[in-house]
From TrEMBL:
Upper taxonomic lineage: Bacteria, Pseudomonadati, Pseudomonadota, Alphaproteobacteria, Rhodospirillales
Origin species: Azospirillum thermophilum
Cross-referenced Pfam families: DeoRC, HTH_DeoR
Keywords associated with the record: DNA-binding, Plasmid, Repressor, Transcription, Transcription regulation
Name of the featured protein: DeoR family transcriptional regulator
Keyword field contains Transcription: yes
Length: 254
């Protein structure tokens, strides 16, 4: 039985998320449709922000303007994110108010929080909300705002205003790209939400996986010096470590 168009597009997304990049001809052959049909499917999926169309291929990998699909990002650097979660979780004391951003790096922290600790979590991440809801000792605040299914988060004026009216002991955020001592992200609405968290927290902690040092993104988000604590997952190449230390940036490798 032939797939419906939506079933076929879901199959395309599944293949791209697993492989990272898939050739157009391979998709046409695997799904039993013409190249033109695949072209039209990719155009639609790209317009929804679910993948990026390249010459003769589709990719889930990020670019200057395109943030990778959330489900794709969830599958990469998983051990590094767990290491960051363990280190960051040790900073959260009982009774703390904590802000967690929409990143898959911070999502690992949400999954690692001790279910027995009385903590208040504020987040714009739908994925973090799903992981945390129902825990008896946890007070959970979801910012609201305009929902972005590709990023699994809430953004825009409602989100930023909600964050601006709250205060937290900690904000845990990540970024798409590190260039020198500056952080960047592809989406300016995501940048504004992260900046709002940073402005509302007493202590700002940055969580970075090694791949962030080899990626470029369009919008300046912050400078490393704006953070009280920077946690970077191993392994980080010696040249990057030396450059950060030479710039006077204090950080911890975990």
């Amino acid at each position: 039985m032939a797939m419906t168009p939506e079933e076929r597009r879901k199959a395309i997304i599944d293949r791209v998320v697993v492989a990272g990049t898939v050739q157009l001809d391979a998709l046409a052959e695997q799904l039993g449709v013409s190249r033109m049909t695949i072209h039209r499917d990719l155009d639609l999926l790209e317009s929804r922000g679910l993948l990026r169309k390249q010459r003769g291929a589709a990719t889930a990998e990020s670019s200057l303007l395109f943030e990778s699909n959330f489900h794709y990002r969830q599958q990469i650097e998983t051990e590094e994110k767990r290491a960051l979660a363990r280190a960051a979780g040790g900073l959260i004391l009982p009774g703390s108010v904590v802000m967690i951003d929409d990143s898959t790096t911070a999502l690992a922290l949400a999954e690692d929080i001790d279910p027995g600790e009385p903590v208040t979590i504020i987040t714009n991440s739908a994925a973090a909300f799903d992981r945390l809801r129902g825990r008896p000792n946890l007070q959970l605040i979801l910012t609201g705002g305009v929902y972005n299914d590709t990023l699994q988060g809430f953004y825009g004026l409602v989100c930023e205003q909600a964050l601006g009216k709250l205060r937290a002991d900690h904000a845990f955020v990540s970024a798409s790209s590190v260039v020198g001592t500056a952080l960047f992200h592809q989406d300016q609405e995501v940048v504004r939400a992260k900046r709002a968290m940073m402005a509302s927290a007493k202590c700002r902690t940055l969580l970075l996986t090694p791949s962030k040092f080899g990626t470029l993104a369009l919008n300046h988000m912050a400078d490393l010096a704006e953070f009280d604590r920077i946690l970077i997952a191993k392994p980080l190449d010696e040249g990057t470590v030396a450059a950060l230390r030479q710039a006077g940036i204090s950080f911890e490798l975990v």
